[in-house]
Amino acid sequence: ILLDKDGKRKHTRPTFSGQQIFALEKTFEQTKYLAGPERARLAYSLGMTESQVKVWFQNRRTKWRKKHAAEMATAKKKQDSETERLKGASENEEEDDDYNKPLDPNSDDEKITQLLKKHKPGGGGLLLPPPEGEASV
Predict the structure, then answer these.
(1) Regarding predicted confidence, which is higher, 78 or 123?
(2) What separation in angstroms does the CA of 119 have from each of 21, 58, 69, 86, 92?
(3) Burial of 23 (0-12, 13-18, 19+ CB in 10 A)
(4) What are the respective helix, strand and coil percentages of the chain, to the nearest 5?
(5) Which of 29, 83, 108, 137 is most buried when burial is the number of CB atoms within 10 A of its CB?
(6) Which residues form the Homeobox domain (predicted)?
(7) Is residue 93 part of a domain?
């Protein structure tokens, strides 16, 4: 028994063996809550007090909830970013209506140049013939 500076009993934190933790984790996977008789049975089989088992399960549920909440937040962020990406793609499709329309190569040179710049990295790389009446360089 440890005593503090005032002579009162000092509470020490129990350390559980690997076997005890393994059994507690396995039980927790099966059920997140233990009823009184189940808790008593588990405590007895592991050489622990019922209070230790009860507190271990309370702490483990808290850890589980935090992890679950973090996973849900990550999934929501991923879903939100995918929604934004799809929303952005649909907005670009609306802007690209001209891209899907047939062009007249004789009269839409400026439109062709703008579309190529917009949709090809580096401005396109395609050489267009100069409009009629202009000399090539």
Answers:
(1) 78
(2) 59, 57, 41, 18, 11
(3) middle
(4) 65, 0, 35
(5) 108
(6) 7-67
(7) no
Per-residue pLDDT reduced to its tens digit, 71-117? 888 888 888 888 887 877 665 555 556 556 666 666 667 777 777 77
Round to whole Å and give the CA distance between 76 and 125: 41
Structural domain that includes position 64:
35-74
Separation CA 67–CA 52 (nearest Å)? 22
How many residues are given for the chain?
Answer: 137
Domain count, the chain: 1
Tell me whether residue 15 is in a domain. no
Would you say 123 and 116 are in contact if contact means Cβ atoms under 8 Å apart? yes
Show Cβ contacts of residue 99 under 8 Å, excluding neighbours closer than 6 positions.
115, 118, 119
- The dihedral built from the CA positions of residue 39, 42, 45 and 46, taken in this order, carries a sign that is negative
Q: What is the pTM of this model?
A: 0.51
